[in-house]
Amino acid sequence: MHLYCTPEFTYYFDIAMQVGSARRSEKIRTYNMRDDRVTDHRINENMYGVSRLLDGGRELDELIDMIQMEARYERLMEQLQAQEDARTSSAADTTRS
After folding, report:
1. Is the model more confident about 51 or about 11?
2. What's 32's DSSP letter?
3. 58 falls in which pLDDT band (50, 70, 90)?
4. Rounded to 5 degrees, what angle do the CA atoms 8, 48, 55 make?
5. Spatial distance between the Cα atoms of 60 and 73, rounded to a whole number of angstroms
6. Residue 16, in any domain of the structure
7. Quick one: which of 10, 59, 80, 92 could link to 53 by a disulfide (CB 3.0–4.6 Å)?
C-alpha cells in the first residue's frame, strides 16, 4: 500500500504531531528540499530523494520499514527491561524473607 501526500500535508501533519507536547524539539522528520534529503529524527536516518519519497515509491516503503523495525526493537527492549525489573524485584523479595 502506498500513501500519496503532498508536501503541505506532510508539513502540517508533522506540526500536528508536535502539538501534543507543544515542543518543537521533538522533531519527527525534517524535509530539506535544497539538499534533496529527508531526515527522520525518530530513527536517526537520512534518505535522499524527497519527491520520490513524497510520491510514495520504494523510498517511502523503506522509510516505513525502518520505522516499524525501530518500533519493534523498542518494544522488545521494554519487554526485556520489564523482565529484568521483575527478576530483580523477585530476588530482592527473596533476600528480605
Report:
1. 51
2. E
3. confident
4. 45
5. 20
6. yes
7. 59
pLDDT at residue 92, rounded to an integer:
72
pLDDT at 1: 45
For residues 23-40, give the mean pLDDT. 82
Q: Sheet harboring 45-48: ordered strands across?
A: 29-32, 37-40, 45-48
d(CA 81, CA 87): 10
Number of domains observed in the structure of the chain? 1
* Domain membership of residue 62 as a residue range: 7-91
Percentage above 70 pLDDT, the chain: 79
CB atoms within 10 A of CB 64: 13
CATH code for the domain in which residue 64 is found: 3.30.70.1660
